Amino acid sequence: MPHGGFARRMAPSFLFDLNKYDLNTVKFGVDVIEKINPHRGAMRLLDGVYECVLDAPAEVIAYKDIRDDEFWVPGHVPGRPLFPGVLMLEAAAQLASFVCLQRLEQQFMGFAGAQDVKYRGQVVPGDKFILMGKEIKIHPRRSTCQMQGIVNGKLVFEATIIGMVF
Q1: Are the C-beta atoms of 151 and 129 separated by less than 8 Å?
Q2: Is there a domain that residue 60 lies in?
Q3: pTM of the model
Q4: Before 86, cis peptide (omega within 30)?
Q5: Which residues 6+ apart lie within 8 Å of 114 measured at CB?
Q6: Residue 107 has what pLDDT?
Q7: Domain with 157 in it: what CATH number?
Q8: I want to staple 156 with a disulfide (CB 3.0 to 4.6 A). Which of 48, 96, 121, 160 is the partner?
């Protein structure tokens, strides 16, 4: 054991290898995202989907460009704006909804919970926040997805998202 008697924890690995996917080509733009998810305006937190594999377990990769003109920038943290963790969580929930609604062929999925949420780095204006998700369980009324957020090749966020059809 290292000094102090504490075992060093390894950083978690990515859900899947991003190098296997073309992150220069957007397969689904805002028009498709908005046909599936109801979020609009400042609350639409997905700008594009790079990959969406609906085979079980479903896998999805999307992104949000973090802009300096977003509603939260002036107040979260003045002089050093940080993309709020709650918005990272909401973006992950929107991505889980995007993939699960296609698998379930339902009209609306609400955010029902989150588990094991961890923030591991900062996200700031100018960053491309890449989200990847993998389906854990899917039932006609409920879904669970493991989600991760990456910036510049580093894991900055992870959570398990629970959605429910309402």
Answers
A1: yes
A2: yes
A3: 0.91
A4: no
A5: 89, 93, 159, 160, 161, 162
A6: 81
A7: 3.10.129.10
A8: 121
> At residue 9, does pLDDT exceed 90?
no
Backbone Cα Rg of the chain = 16
Measure the N-to-C terminal CA separation of the chain; round to a whole number of Å.
Answer: 49
| pLDDT tens digits, 25-48 | 999 999 999 999 999 999 999 999
d(CA 13, CA 148): 10
Residue recorded with tokens 């990769």: 61
39 a catalytic residue: no
CB 136 within 8 A of CB 160: yes
State both tokens at 27.
Answer: 């397969």
Task: Please tell me which residue in 3, 39, 76, 139 is annotated as part of the active site.
Answer: 76
Residue 5 lies in a domain: no
Residue 12: inside a domain, yes or no?
no
Contact 126, 151 (CB under 8 A): no
Which amino acid type is present at position 127? D
Neighbouring residues of 10: CB distance < 8 A, sequence distance ≥ 6: none
